[in-house]
Amino acid sequence: MEVLLLKNVPGVGSAGQVKKVNDGHARNYLLPRKLAVPATGGAVKQAETIKAAAARRDAKTLGEAQELAKQLGQITLTFRAKAGEGERLFGSITSSDVADALARDHRINVDRRKIDLELPIKELGEKQVAIKVHPEVTAQVTVAVEREPA
Questions:
Q1: Which of 2, 5, 9, 95 could make a disulfide contact with 39, Cβ separation 3.0–4.6 Å?
Q2: Do 56 and 128 reside in the same domain of the chain?
Q3: Structurally, how many domains does the chain consist of?
Q4: Do 68 and 37 form a contact (C-beta atoms < 8 A)?
Q5: In this model, does residue 14 exceed pLDDT 90?
Q6: DSSP assignment, residue 84?
Q7: Burial letters for 37-74: b for 16+ Cβ neighbours within 10 Å, e otherwise?
Q8: Sign of CA dihedral 87, 106, 75, 139
Q9: Residue numbers of the domain that contains 40
Q10: How far apart are CA 148 and CA 89, in angstroms?
């Protein structure tokens, strides 16, 4: 039996594909769980239109992400923090701090989990921080940490 997969099914295929599966597997597993529908002409045509719309939407979001990455690449965030000898900070600059500074100073809202900062910044100086704005696009923001005047 040919079915049109509505969701990704391990061992069978991914959403939107037309696959030939055993009748029992389709009737007892795929169809009752709404993982697939029988591959009729109308269902296949509808899936193609949905795929085309998704491709257009993905292209648009990719373009927007590239524009945002270009903007982020020109930004330098400056933080002032207390530091001891050896240029070590008493506190640290975290991904939440970077996200808050982007929202406050530049009105760019970025989820802190999209900011790729393995360890918090604990030293004075400049550091490049990667931000994942799209699965295919990563931007670099410069973070400068200066000594807070005493």
A1: 2
A2: no
A3: 2
A4: no
A5: no
A6: -
A7: bebeeebeeebeeeeeeeeeeeeeeeeebeebbeebee
A8: positive
A9: 2-61
A10: 10
Residues 139 and 78 in one domain: yes
Tell whether 71 and 140 lie within a shared domain.
yes
Between β-strands 121-123 and 137-147, what pairing exists: parallel, antiparallel or unpaired?
A: unpaired
Other C-beta atoms closer than 10 Å to the C-beta of 90 total: 10
Residues 101 and 143 in one domain: yes
Query: From CA 65, how far away is CA 57, in angstroms rounded?
Result: 12
Locate 126 and state its tokens: 């400049």
pLDDT of 146 over the 80 cut: yes
Query: Residue 51: which of 15, 20, 13, 19 has the closest Cα?
Result: 15
Q: What is the CATH number of the domain that holds 126?
A: 3.10.430.100
pTM equals 0.69
Measured CA to CA in angstroms, residue 30 lies from 11, 13, 48, 142 at distances of 12, 12, 20, 49
Q: Phi, psi (5° rounding) for residue 90?
A: -75, -30
At 123, list the tokens: 């030293």
**Does pLDDT of 150 surpass 80?**
no
Helices (H), 17-137: 23-25, 41-73, 95-106
